[in-house]
Amino acid sequence: MILLDDAFQHRYVKPGYAILLTEFSQPYYSDSLLPSGNLREPAAGAKRADAIVVTKCPPHVTVEERQKIREELKPLQHQQIYFSYIHYRDPLQRPDGSHSPLEILKKSKVMLLCGIANPQGLMDFVSSKAIAVETCVFPDHHPYSVGDIIKLKNRFISFASSHTGPSFLLTTRKDYMRLLNPELQHLLKELPLLILDIEPAFFQSDQTSLHDTVRNYIMGFRKNH
Predict the structure, then answer these.
(1) Which tens digits make up the pLDDT trace of 32-77?
(2) How many helices, marked H, and strands, marked E, lie in the chain?
């Protein structure tokens, strides 16, 4: 199979099975076109989707909340609706490969470094775990520079010295991959850095249903049998 990411508007490629993502906190039916909103095309384009995944749901989203969203999405007869949430992995990892339990944040102060889209959910999660949190937020896909890290280091030193007890610099795996430049690593090596792995997860019934649907589609091609 050929899997394309972020290609719903790639109209010259005709997918056999199209999955459209929309966020729980800002579904496309409540959004508007760029530049006043985030939509790249009118919401009517959702008719091309075979499945719609509502992402970043609260972990304990209710049946009633899901039903309300289904009604607002107004799916066509062939369209399936699935719900997913963000899972924060335990344990945390250190740059040297060692691990620390997520529980360590409960007695710590945390400076959160992130450059991801819509980081509010991440900030809320970290705030629920740590004693005190200070955020250092950059735009999505931000290429960290030496200047960024020097400012971050000075800011962290000030943050840590203003509190008693342990303090950590926490970042996501996605952000850490952009910090692997040797020049940046040299500046970061003296900081107590922890890496948080984040992954999307489906509610169990949705995971099974989507898995089976996609697998059956792929296996429907004779050469895949």
Answers:
(1) 999 999 999 999 999 999 999 999 999 889 999 999 999 999 999 9
(2) 6, 10
Reduce the DSSP state of residue 170 to 3 states and report it. strand
Q: Compute CA 69 distance to the chain's CA centroid, rounded to the nearest angstrom.
A: 20
What single letter denotes the amino acid at residue 108? Answer: S
Angle at 103 between CA 99 and CA 107, to 5 degrees: 115
Parallel/antiparallel/unpaired status of strands 198-202 and 80-88? antiparallel
Domain with CATH 3.40.50 in the chain: 90-196
CATH of domain 90-196: 3.40.50
> Is-contact 87 145, C-beta < 8 A?
no
- Check the CA dihedral 183-175-105-98 and report its sign: negative
Residue 59: φ, ψ to 5°: -55, -25
pTM: 0.85
Contacts of 6 (CB under 8 A, 6+ apart): none
Q: What letter represents residue 119's amino acid? A: P
